[in-house]
Design goal:
This protein has 131 residues and is an alpha/beta fold. The chain is built from six helices and four strands. Helix 1 packs across helix 4, helix 2 packs across helix 3 and helix 4 packs antiparallel against helix 5. Strands 2-1-3-4 form a four-stranded parallel sheet, sandwiched between helices. Strand 1, helix 1 and strand 2 form a beta-alpha-beta unit. Helix content is 50%, strand content 15%.
């Protein structure tokens, strides 16, 4: 099973994990990390490395961060340089897809998760035919 790390500015990652577990039940090999205003982003990078070792049981790790170019994504670049996939712009649809498909790592899993994020953006009025 692929390990997952969620990282965000403030409590978004923790809240997203709680929401996902409300929908899909308790999850293993997943942790949420927060960067708070007083935190050193370099320490977040070290924490990501430590947590990656904890959640990886041999099938790899995928890191999801809230915002491309923000401190969590910059901190994750150290792991990305080592080959760890880092997906930016995380959303609940993306996380739910990843949780449902993380039994085996593949590059297509990464593509599928990113596509879930894109397809999760809709104007419901269009579906309902409302103008």
């Amino acid at each position: 099973m692929v390990g997952i790390i969620l990282a965000s500015h403030g409590g978004m990652a923790k809240g997203m994990l709680e929401s996902a577990q409300m929908i899909m039940g308790e999850q293993e090999q997943i942790q949420a990390l927060a960067l708070n205003p007083q935190d050193d982003p370099l320490l977040l990078a070290e924490k990501m490395r430590e947590v990656a070792k904890k959640v990886d049981t041999g099938d790899g790790v995928i890191l999801m961060v809230d915002l491309m170019g923000g401190s969590p994504s910059n901190a994750s670049a150290y792991l990305a340089k080592e080959g760890v996939p880092v997906i930016t712009g995380m959303s609940l649809p993306m996380l739910l897809e990843l949780l449902g498909m993380r039994f085996e790592f593949s590059e297509s899993l990464i593509e599928h998760v990113m596509e879930a994020g894109k397809s999760g953006i809709m104007d419901i009025r269009t579906i309902l035919g409302v103008k």
